[in-house]
Every structure is written in C-alpha cells, then in structure tokens.
Amino acid sequence: MKSHDFLKFCQAFLSIFVVEVFSVAQITSFSIISEYAADRDTLKFAADHPVKIYFFGNNLETIVALSFSRRPKKYLKDCDDDRFGESLKVTNSGTGIMMSVFSLPSDNCPRMLSICSKQLNKNGSLSWIHEEPIFPKYLSCETDGFNISGPLAWVLYGFMLTQSALFSGLNLGIMTLDVLTLKIMQQAGSPSEKKMADSVLPVRARGNLILCSLTMANVVVNVIISMLSDRLIGGTGWAIFYASIGILIFGEIIPQAICNRYSLLVASKTIPFTKFILYLTLPVAYPLSLVLDTILGEDMGKTFTRAKLAELIKQHGNLGFVDKDEVNIITGALSMNHRTVKEIMTPIDDVYMLSSKAVLDFETTNDIIAHGFTRIPIFENDRRRVKSVLNVKDLAFVDPNDKIPVSTICNFYKRTFITVPASKTLTDIFDEFRKGNTHLALVYADSPKSDLNANSNRLIGIVTMEDVIEEIMQEEIVDETDIFTDNKRKKKRSMRCPNMDLWPILNFQTGSRITPQLKIAVLRHLVANTIAFGPKYAHTLILQGFLNCSFAKEVMSDDTQSRSPALYEAGKESTNAIFTLQGSLIVEFPDTHLQFEAGAFTLFGEAMLANVNETFPVLPDEWNLEALLQTLGDKAKFTPDFNTQVTSDVLFLEVTAEKYLLIRYLSQKIQGGKFPLVF
C-alpha cells in the first residue's frame, strides 16, 4: 500500500473517534478478511468464494442492510434503483464496526462496485442511500479468467471436448501411420489410398514436430475443460469427476478407437487443420522436436526382420488375405538365407548312382527309367568318388543292344557338376544353379583347412535345383516319373497305377516269345488300363513272372485254307481269356453281321475274369484250387456272342480261371506281406 493511501486509511479510521453529531450513518472505510488485492482505492475479491467484510464508520447501528451498486454516486444519493442482487445481512458491534458475509457468482461479477446502505431514518422509515467511504472507495469482483455463464459456457465446454477428441485421435492416428507404411500405400495401395497417403506423408515425415504440436494442443484444451467444469459445477470434487469423465470418454477412448481403425482417412481429411495447429504451436513445438530428433534420431518407420516378416505373412494367410500357396512361397524364399544345403540334401547312401563300369544294356536302361531321375551321378570304384553325371537325355540315341559302357557316354557329353560345402546357404546355391552351368551339386562335409583328406572321404550327399525350388515352395514337386514324394522321409508316391514302379524284367530263356521291350509295354498296359490286372487284384511282381513263363501262344495264319483259324465262336463256351500281343483278328457279330478288326493289346473274355473277382473279392488264406473252382462252377466259363478269325500271325496270352486264381492268390499274399511257401 502506498504512503498516501495509508494516510487516507488512517484518516478514515480516526474519523470514527471524532465526537460529532451525525443525523445519518456514514461508512468511512471497509476491509476484507480474505485473500484480496488492493489497487489504488479499490479492493479486489474473488467471485464464487465467501467474502467476510468489515465496515468502519459513524452511527452504523442505524444500518439494517447493505447492498452493492454498479454506478458510484455521491454520498446520501438515493440507491434504491441502482443496487443489484440480494441485500446483505449485517452484524453491528455497537462500536463503529459492522460485519457482513457475501459471495458473488462469476456470471454476475462486476468489475466496479460501490456500497449502498439501508438506514433507519428519524421518522422511522427505511431508505437506501449511497455511501462514499474515504478509503478505499470501491470493490472489484475478479474471476479466474473465465467470465462466461449460461448456455454459452456449456457450448464452449462441448466445443473444447470436441477439440480434445480431435487432438487425441489425430495424435494416435497420424503417429500410427509410420513413414514406411505410407510409402507402401503410395506404391501398392488402392487409388484412394495412394491419394490419401500422398497428402499425409509430408506432415507425418516430421514425426516429432507433429507429436509435440498435437500433444501441446491437447494438454491446453484439457486444462480449459477442467477450468470450465470448475466454473459450471463449482470448485468441488464433482467438477473434477465430471471433467475427468468427459475427457476420458469423449476426449480419449472414443476418438482413439475411431482413429485407430480409420487412421488414414481421418488424417487425410484433417490435414489443413493439422497444419494450422503446427503453425500455431510452432514457436514452442519446433525447439522441442529438434531436441527429440537429436536424441532419438530419424524415424525410419516400423521395420521387420526376415523371421518377423515371414510370421506377418503367415498371420495374413490365417486371416484369408493371402493364399496358402503364396504364403508357402514367400516364407520359403525368406528362409533361404539362413537354411543350409545340408538340411535339404539327399544323403549319399540314398542316392541312385551308377558305376562307370556299368553297361547300357536293356536291364540298365530299364533300371534308369524305372527310378525316374533325370541326372544320375557316376562313380568310380567307390560311391563317394563321383566322376561324372549322366543325363537321361544322353540315352536318346543309345541302343541297348549295343551295350555301350556308361563311361563312354559320360566322356562324350562331359556333363559337369559343382561341389559345395554343407554349410552353404540356399540363397548361394540357388544363385549358382541359376547361372545354368548345372543343376546338380555334390555336398561335402565342412572340415578345417588343415584337413588333408581327400574330398571323396567327405562326400555326404547331393542337392539339385529341384530340391531348392521345393524349399521355396514349401512342398514337394512330384512329376510323372517320381517314385518318392519326399527325399528325406522316402515317402512313396500314391499313384492310381504304379506303372513306373516296375521291377526289372529279366529276359529269362523260358521259351517265351515276348521280347523285353514288349514285356514292359504289356505290363504297363495291363496295370494301367485293365481292371482285372490292376493294382487292386494283381501285383506287378506276379504279372512279371506271368509274362516270363510260357503263357504266350501263337496262331499262324494260313492263306491256303479257305477259313482262318478261329479263337472264339459265338454261342460256344470258352474257358480262356485272351490278350493279344501282336497281329490282328476279325471280330464278327452274327446277329448284326457287324465286323471290326482288333489289333494288339485287346482283351477278350474279361467277363470270365470279372466273375472270378465278383465271386472272390478276397481269397481264402489257405490255397485250395479244387474248392475254389467248385465254388466258381459255371462262372469259370463264358459264352461269347461273337466270332474271331485270325487274319495274320497272332501272338497272345491265354489266361484260364485256374491261372487267374493263382495270380490273385500270390498277389494277395505279397500285398499282405506274406510270401506263400507251399501251395
């Protein structure tokens, strides 16, 4: 308080004790017993808080009430029309001191107030008059910064909640869209995603700046919401509760849930507003962002290791966004860099190989074809001393009857191969295969450089281009010649007809007129194209033995005879089924006089064989041919409705019910793992 103000206060206080006769009461001074501030001749007090005020003056016992006026006037002027609000009750001490307690709301809080008193006149009437204290003269009502009331305050409260929601949602939504994700959307997104990513990326590139700006704006808005809540509800615990609930639900949870789901859409639609907030908070946010950039470094976006990227693809596959085959190929390619040749190679003991001394006769050639491999390692003396590779294409012009040594073919074509250590990665071996020099590599065990042993002692397996591609695709590639579907588990291929799983057919000299080449063709045809000799009823090994026996017969055509020999006559029972191997027959149906020519690989009498299979789906464990034939009875025969005439020399197989039952029985025993010893 300044010196001259202090003198005025003392003057007003001392005037109380001046002995004069006053006709009316006069307030010469007042004081507030609470937090207040003095500004010249005005005392300031806070709105919405109880204020205890003491008045000093003369004849105060005649004052029965007090009030305030917005318009100060001279002492004793009428105040009845100028005052506002309710009158204040007073307490007189009878010693020139009077006390009152009041509180003014912030929505009715004038900046300048003067004092009015209600006094008892000599005639007993009451009147309101203006008081004019010496010091201080006036009161001033102060708010906490907001002097908003009524509907406007609630409107502002709702607006601030929406701003809090927007800042909170944008903070999560924009920061969720890392730079790498936006770049991916720019290149691989839909047209709308590309457009939105183009607009968001320049802003998101300044990650720390956008973080500081939006967080700062969100904090400021939340503080305003708390102050408005305190103003609207009152400075109580309920104000804190409602402000917290409003910010939590409408300013945090709801907007973050929406923006997390539709982050790109929300961020792109609010780019102008976001830039405005950036410029508005730039003086404070920019220095903070520079500090964060220095400490944390550049924001590279969310990146993944190979393992994490593979797992990401798998999870997308589980959700149906990527096909299973695509998942296998992508994850297989990603795993190539840390998988080694040793994991996928075929062990050397399981490799089909040929000796360099082998001869390419019929038996060897058929064995090569039966195994179904395109490239065959050729060893010298020891299986671990591989010298060359034989390609099946090299056998195209080789006649088995010439019996050419394998070494001669290998020296002519000079097929190459590469050698790799077992620790070589699939990526490296794939690069070597792609160069086209060879698609087969020999795998050697890793050993120290000081190991002087020969490489032949360390050969552990082979690996092919197909093996690497299978690992990329994560499944086995099975072509028409493959016997195994997995070179690790040696799982055999499940085929409708095992026409490639042929046992070597030896050209036994048993009187058979069937050449080895014809045997192969016949065996494959019977297995693949007939039911009676298919895998269900006949085993390949038994059929081979059948072909090796003297079951083949030949009928010669004689042009000198008027009628060629007949194999079947219409209406005449026959006990034989015939399978033609060479030559041709004329088949005639007497009823219709239709004729056609039947050539090689035609089966007659299949009805009789079907009768056997229908009667005996499974044969008894004990072999008793007499009982079997007795059960068959007339079904062991069939009556053709056609005639056959031999027009050329015919070579054929003749099968009776007895022979077919024997084939069935032996096949059943082999398929059951039991070889018959006694018949």
Describe this entry's structure for a reader.
With 679 residues, this protein is an alpha+beta fold. The chain folds into five domains: 140 residues, Immunoglobulin-like; 146 residues, no CATH class; 29 residues, no CATH class; 138 residues, Roll (CBS-domain), CATH 3.10.580.10; 156 residues, Sandwich (Jelly Rolls), CATH 2.60.120.10. The chain contains 21 helices and 29 strands. It is elongated. This is Metal transporter CNNM4.
Number of strands: 29
CATH topology of the largest domain: Jelly Rolls
Kindly report the average pLDDT value.
Answer: 79
Radius of gyration: 55 Å
Poorly predicted runs of 5 or more residues: 12-22, 449-454, 493-511, 559-563
What is the structural class?
alpha+beta
- Name the CATH architecture of the largest domain: Sandwich
Could you give a short account of the major beta sheet?
4 strands, antiparallel
Offer a few descriptive terms.
4-stranded antiparallel sheet, 679 residues, repeat, 21 helices, CNNM, 29 strands, alpha+beta, 5 domains, membrane, ACDP, Immunoglobulin-like, CBS domain
Brief account:
With 679 residues, this protein is of the alpha+beta class.
Annotate the secondary structure layout.
Layout: H1 3-14, E1 26-32, E2 37-39, E3 42-46, E4 51-58, E5 63-69, E6 83-89, E7 91-92, E8 97-102, E9 114-120, E10 126-130, E11 138-142, H2 151-176, H3 179-188, H4 191-204, H5 207-233, H6 237-261, H7 263-269, H8 271-280, H9 282-296, H10 306-318, H11 324-334, H12 341-344, E12 346-347, E13 354-355, E14 359-360, H13 362-371, E15 375-380, E16 382-391, E17 404-405, H14 406-413, E18 418-421, H15 426-434, E19 440-444, E20 459-464, H16 465-473, E21 484-486, E22 491-492, H17 516-529, H18 540-548, E23 552-555, E24 576-582, E25 585-589, E26 594-598, E27 603-604, H19 606-615, H20 625-632, E28 643-646, E29 650-656, H21 657-671
Parallel strand pairs: 3-11, 13-15, 18-19
Antiparallel strand pairs: 1-4, 2-3, 4-8, 5-6, 5-9, 7-8, 9-10, 12-20, 14-17, 15-16, 19-20, 21-22, 23-29, 24-27, 24-29, 25-26, 25-28
Main location: membrane
Protein name: Metal transporter CNNM4
Domain CBS: 413-480
